[in-house]
Amino acid sequence: MKNRIRELLGIRYPIIQAPMNWVSGADLTAAVSNAGGLGTLGPNAGAEGITPDAEETAERMRIQIRRVKALTAKPFAVNIVAGFGELLVYSQKIVDVVLEEAVPVAIVSVGRPDIYTGVLKDAGIRVLHAISTPRHGIKAEEAGVDAVICEGYEAGGHKGFTELTTLTLTPMVADAVSIPVVAGGGIGDARGILAALALGADGAYMGTRFMATKESESHANVKAAIVAGKDICTASVPKDFMLARDLTNDFTRTYHEMRAAGASPVALNEFLNAHSQYQAQHLGEADTAEICCGQVAGLIDEIPSVKDLMADMVQNIGVQFEALKQRLAGLV
Ligand SMILES: Cc1cc2nc3c(=O)[nH]c(=O)nc-3n(C[C@H](O)[C@H](O)[C@H](O)COP(=O)(O)O)c2cc1C
To answer: In angstroms, how far is CA 256 from the centroid of its own chain?
Structure first.
């Protein structure tokens, strides 16, 4: 049997660097693709500041796409955060740029799969859609996406309202759809990649582990906070539009205190906007602003280059597989 994600995407290893707002810029994306995985540009890649302008947002992405193309000839992806309502203005502009720049792969998240899949696929772009329930996996397959990405509760960032973990979500989705499945949330090393494949996935999707690399755009203070994080170092943060998982800090503590005290949705949103990911990831306010981060941070104790990380993980897949076979000896 062949690996369907490698074949679909034309990559050497079925390892996808997940998109991360303010974190996954051109250097990280190209480094992952050059190392044999699939790198992904995230929202605000390479940006110096916040802009409410959809046109400017899209043109900033065009510059990053061209930079990736200058750094690698390998396939890479762009994240399209589809959104709803008036936010579709932003995603439509990103889709236009993705089409104009003939980006090989689109990773679509936070939105319906039937909005952009057709137009992207007509242009020959591979479409991967992020989901957090089997029901959404079936809808994505019906909409014609090439593969689905399971985002479990362990994952860093925003991912629907469900609390299905990667361990439960992935096999449910693998049973529910016939297209390739990628597992994400909680994967930080070769053991996690093997586990993803054992659950029925064709590939692994990793955000937090790649955030803590030399090439990521995260501020040094954020990288240091991830390394300092031990065991229970993240918290689930309920927002009015989604659950997020963040690194535990003064921001998460205050937010939870405000909710417990009955703060209004307006007050909570004001607090979120005043302590945004931009402030943590770009300005380095790692104690007081939001750092989206997965539970796997507890496994991370160094900031390697992408090349070293990928080489280490790939080599260890073989080592861990041998160890697994030993543990299975006599059972199969
Ligand atoms: C800092 C950070 C920012 C993120 N931003 C986005 C985003 O802009 N778009 C998106 O689809 N997912 C985003 N995510 C979710 C990731 O793409 C991915 O689902 C998640 O990192 C996988 O779990 P892991 O962190 O345990 O590897 C973000 C995650 C992190 C950690």
So the answer is: 24
- How many other β-carbons are positioned within 10 Å of the β-carbon of residue 200? 15
Contact criterion met (CB below 8 Å) for 40 and 78 = yes
Q: Which structural domains are found in the chain, ordered by start?
A: 4-217 (3.20.20.70), 220-281 (no CATH)
Ligand 1 contact via 24 beta carbon (within 6 Å): no
Predicted TM-score of the model (pTM): 0.98
Asked whether the beta carbons of 304 and 213 are under 8 A apart, the reply is yes
How close is the Cα of 131 to the center of ligand 1, in Å? 12
The distance of Cα 197 from the centroid of its chain, to the nearest Å, equals: 18
Instruction: Write down the number of H helices and E strands in the chain.
Output: 14, 11
Q: What is the pLDDT of residues 163-209, one digit of tens each?
A: 999 999 999 999 999 999 999 999 999 999 999 999 999 999 999 99
Per DSSP bridges, beta strands 203-206 and 243-247 are: unpaired
